Fold these 3 entries.
Entry 1:
Amino acid sequence: MAEPLTREQILDTTEQVLRRFGLDKTSVVDVARALGVSHGTLYRHFASKAALKEAVAERWLHEVSTPLGKIAGEEGSAFDKVRSWIERLVHIKQSKAKEDPELFAMYNALAEESVEVITAHIHELIAQLTKIVEEGMKSGEFQKGNAHEQAAAIFYATARFHHPALAKEWASSHIQEEFKQVWSLITSGLVKKS
Amino acid sequence: MAEPLTREQILDTTEQVLRRFGLDKTSVVDVARALGVSHGTLYRHFASKAALKEAVAERWLHEVSTPLGKIAGEEGSAFDKVRSWIERLVHIKQSKAKEDPELFAMYNALAEESVEVITAHIHELIAQLTKIVEEGMKSGEFQKGNAHEQAAAIFYATARFHHPALAKEWASSHIQEEFKQVWSLITSGLVKKS
């Protein structure tokens, strides 16, 4: 008798099939065929093609948020943590884009279609960053203020270095230098303190 | 006898033809036909289709850089000027995208094809901003440092609000609030000054 289908197995196969046929041309029947099951069996796990695609997008985004969540939970100075967190985010996105640009583009198209999944992902990332910023405000490392707003501002001010829609520019030989300059601006500020 | 062809006339017509046929399907012959001249005549003004497209992209980008250049040249506090400059840049890009998303997308595709044109445009913008930052460093409004690097950092840290590849997100109801938060972060900095 065949082993029961696991969720991971279905998502692995869906990924392979999506990669072979592309986002638009992949059907649930294709995935079922690649798994060697009927599409009825597959529909018992995922009620629609949209649900299946969302699950793939969600798993991919967890590969980003999970290591970042660990950094947010570590001990240490808030300044070091916020820097590690942003650098790790930038590193994860840029290395995925570099290693396999096609797969990266496919995943981003997939995530863009799943608005709720991507919104939840951004919220999760900003919540992690908010936690670090709160710690820094409490410890006196950071200026007092609204930690959530400040975290969102850090996230958006570094978008050039981690937003998938800007991936084409990450190949620039200046990109690391530019990140350092933006980081220094964000942390120290433009205006002279009196 | 026909009036002599002006450069502006050719670019206006090219714009209309590009709009009707799209970037890929427009040929120099189409533009010549719309102008009522032979393509030989048109080639005397622009040596290739690429040159014609570059000229259209350049003119469009000047609509962005010219009003910004005026702000950079005004009298007044550097702080007010840098804020006006960035707000104007954000406003120009976001209103063009809103008024006519298709034309906006076409122009950006056109500009992306003309790498030298877009590079020169970014350099011009950062040079304008550098001038304002230098003034602010001299007047003591801004922290001392490398004005060019600081200007580039301001430009890149606000990319979310003016980079055409992110235009889809400008429709968000939070976008103005997010700009304010990023602006406040950039000017004041995250870290508490001792």
Note: The mean pLDDT of chain B is 93.
Entry 2:
Amino acid sequence: MFPTKKVQTMIGQMVQVEMKGDQHILEGTLVSADEYLNMHLSNTVEIIDGERAKSLGSVVLRGNNIIIINPVEN
Amino acid sequence: MFPTKKVQTMIGQMVQVEMKGDQHILEGTLVSADEYLNMHLSNTVEIIDGERAKSLGSVVLRGNNIIIINPVEN
Amino acid sequence: MFPTKKVQTMIGQMVQVEMKGDQHILEGTLVSADEYLNMHLSNTVEIIDGERAKSLGSVVLRGNNIIIINPVEN
Amino acid sequence: MFPTKKVQTMIGQMVQVEMKGDQHILEGTLVSADEYLNMHLSNTVEIIDGERAKSLGSVVLRGNNIIIINPVEN
Amino acid sequence: MFPTKKVQTMIGQMVQVEMKGDQHILEGTLVSADEYLNMHLSNTVEIIDGERAKSLGSVVLRGNNIIIINPVEN
Amino acid sequence: MFPTKKVQTMIGQMVQVEMKGDQHILEGTLVSADEYLNMHLSNTVEIIDGERAKSLGSVVLRGNNIIIINPVEN
């Protein structure tokens, strides 16, 4: 399965995303993703030192600034 | 709804944008956005330590340097 | 008006551009810009600590390394 | 053999990938890669100081944030 | 004149290029440039503290890592 | 000769490549390169402080993270 397809299978699930910039690790429910891996997350929280530190709600992430996408196991 | 569509729904509303570079957090009214997530904001202010620190007025942001787009709740 | 169109309206006017890299803030007259937001500026100066610090003359800026474009009010 | 073809020959094998960002070195089994070098790895671990430090499981990596791809010799 | 056209007019002339990465400022004769602003320079030298510090000869520069292109006045 | 063509002429030869990220300078034999300047090198070594410090063997480099490509003179 291609990487972008793999991301499509995560829709509706919790994902952890490492971004460039100041808010490195985000966790949220994947609402949608496109071919550039731009992503729309809901119920997003920023993870600092492994703790759910700050609620960001609904966010859009620019694909080229995403480093790693990781499904969160329940 | 695709991420770029989600951004279109924010037009006319206040958004917070985290950018790469020195002026990390900007807040302004979204005037327009294109498929690359280039954005035109009006009444833009830079947020430093959670404070509205500096008025930038009308700005254009290069999409690939946008990290997170966040609608501002009223 | 789309972001790239907005930039076209600034042609012939003074703009301030924040770039990635060592020369963060540049100010100059916008000669041209293309769809990637590559820009040609004339009479460019580098701004350091809010001062016009160094004259660079005619420069070409690579669009993907532009963070913010800001029209300069007279 | 073109670089993207070379990466295709590594499918099913262990690869080491240096990324931009905080988790520099990852090691995992290459499940798939596309023309942008977006990659899907399984059984991924983060390598810190040459040690397999942290298990990440199944991850998707954004191609433009990959610096070096290295097949792991057995 | 569009930015990429402006760069074409510099072919055969000395240019100064600010790059991302460790060798920030390069100076050389522009041999060719393409639409992505990938550039081929000959007789390239690295400039450190305004001094011609290190000879690099013939180099190819990746366009997306170029920040500023500056014609060198004689 | 266009920059990407220039790189094609280096195939089979030793090249030095400056990358973004932790392993800044690599040296190896250029096996192939594509239009994005993705590169496949064999017999790759990392250069630290001008010394051939670490053998990496066969590697694939993502073009957008390449800063400078330099043919190595014999």
Note: Chain C touches chain B at residues 1-4, 6-7, 18-20, 24, 37, 63-64, 66-71, 73 (CB under 8 Å).
Entry 3:
Amino acid sequence: MPIISVEGPKVTDVEKKRRFAQDLSRAAARYYDMPIEKIILLVKENEPENVSVGGQLIADL
Amino acid sequence: MPIISVEGPKVTDVEKKRRFAQDLSRAAARYYDMPIEKIILLVKENEPENVSVGGQLIADL
Amino acid sequence: MPIISVEGPKVTDVEKKRRFAQDLSRAAARYYDMPIEKIILLVKENEPENVSVGGQLIADL
Amino acid sequence: MPIISVEGPKVTDVEKKRRFAQDLSRAAARYYDMPIEKIILLVKENEPENVSVGGQLIADL
Amino acid sequence: MPIISVEGPKVTDVEKKRRFAQDLSRAAARYYDMPIEKIILLVKENEPENVSVGGQLIADL
Amino acid sequence: MPIISVEGPKVTDVEKKRRFAQDLSRAAARYYDMPIEKIILLVKENEPENVSVGGQLIADL
């Protein structure tokens, strides 16, 4: 039941999501020495006006 | 000020949300031995293409 | 695979944790209309100097 | 790389977001004694039917 | 009930925590146009072997 | 500035952490099409009495 959460910008290509889910889940299964079926992934997509780096909104960069 | 966050699929029935909020908040008030007014709940609803179990997107199951 | 996370003060009574895990997981199984086996709970325990309400550390109240 | 996450209701005024990002990031840079460029902020906006206080949905208050 | 969570390295000076809690909570009260009493802050302190930037553990930098 | 958070049991082997950080960060850099330097990872380690699956504490399994 390890849980991976990822926060980042929106990605619309579902094929990339499939590969990302595979890559992260395999890495976690190896790290925790558990079957991959136990690994849960949540991808969170943030609007550029809701994220800042160094006090600057991504929407303003 | 205990905070409960729940990640899961979208539920559209607001009546179910009302009951869920009651159930979780009462359980937390009992557990922490605090008045229920102190309990905060956040429900997060995820798209099936943004969640995977065992490396497989929920959208693909 | 719904995931419940709870943030609150430390509770040392494991029997209370057992009941809390049961209460929350049953409520979530009902809400999501899923078998209880799918429900994951994480309890996070915070030091009173690392939590504030209204700008005041819990440790100072 | 300190990360600030804020959960609250939606705010549509982007100028307020700019100032909020500045205020939080400066406070974190001072607290951690790091350059402001290292501070990341995520603002999460929740629907009133997905938040409860004391077991009552915000949407019902 | 807005909630601010901060992830960063451990800070042992409680006086700095007091000021940080004040700074963040005031900024959030202004942003959300709510009384400061509604603002909750959680500070999370991470070990340098449990954080990486660019694939490198902070403990190795 | 994508952020990966992982919740799971404690792993004491730092060499495994190094590899895990590399694996996850590379996968995220590829997914987001960003330089790996932008990827932040937080590993959270939970006590078995603070996690439950299906309403059962991991500590009781």
Note: Strands of chain C lie at 3-8, 40-45, 51-53, 56-57.
